[in-house]
Amino acid sequence: MKLTILGTGTSTPSLKRGSPSYLLIAGKQKILVDVGPAVVRRLLECGYAVTDIDVIVITHFHVDHTADLSTFLFACNYGEQARTRPLTIIGGPGIRRFYGGLKKIYRWVAPKSYELSIVTMKSGALQLNGITIEIYPVKHNKESIGVRATERKTVAFTGDTAYSKDLVKLAAGADLLVAECSFPFRTVKGHLNLETLDGVVREARPKRVILTHLDPEWDDFKGILHAPYLLGEDGMTINL
Ligand SMILES: [Zn+2]
Ligand SMILES: [Zn+2]
Questions:
Q1: Model-level pTM greater than 0.90?
Q2: Fewer C-beta neighbours within 10 Å, C or N terminus of the chain?
Q3: What separation in Å is there between the alpha carbon of 12 and the centre of ligand 2?
Q4: How far apart are CA 24 and CA 43, in angstroms?
Q5: How far is the CA of 21 from the centre of ligand 1 (A)?
Q6: pLDDT in tens, 15-43
Q7: Is residue 135 a contact partner of residue 121, using CB atoms and an 8 Å limit?
Q8: How far is the CA of 66 from the centre of ligand 2 (A)?
Q9: How far, in Å, CA of 20 to CA of 134, rounded?
Q10: What CATH number should be reported for the domain whose range is 2-239?
Q11: For ligand 2, a single-atom ion, which residues have Cβ within 5 Å?
């Protein structure tokens, strides 16, 4: 498995950190978690085109996680090569309505030459070509989900969230946890900071934890992070 961190930022525009998005290559599947602003271009910078992606997981509908979904779908129709590879979009309750809304505004996002499946999940598991995808509800928005992908190793993504028992289950024993830690110290509803994330990590015991969804407050952070924590950076690649 190979994880590329496309962006480690938030909704606050930053020259250092792009919008939060991750590309996980597991077996033959290329899974994109969240498609925030400028992610389509970011993918290209990392060597991938929209036509390479098999699965998109939308953790929730906030703009920093979804703005480039229409750009993505548009490029599948009108890019250098029209897409033929099937595409699956997985999201929490309301994902069909969300996609329907995009189609109303931008009719050009409807697939022209490929099969699009939209899967609504708030919890549970599904198998995709040898990869197990598990979905857990997380505490942020009504539709918010975290995702856990297992091939030989397990990588879990929290999406935006506060502490919850389901979050602990999502992270339990993962080889790598890609965890939102929006602020180093400040407490903000619906998000984690170092202390609340540490509560999750103590219970769930993931082997490694990459911090992401980093507010610009992190730019002034002078502390030292110890294992299993690693501060995420845009473009970082991890082989598992
Ligand atoms: Zn966010
Ligand atoms: Zn959010």
A1: yes
A2: C
A3: 12
A4: 12
A5: 10
A6: 999 999 999 999 989 999 999 999 999 99
A7: yes
A8: 10
A9: 20
A10: 3.60.15.10
A11: 62, 160
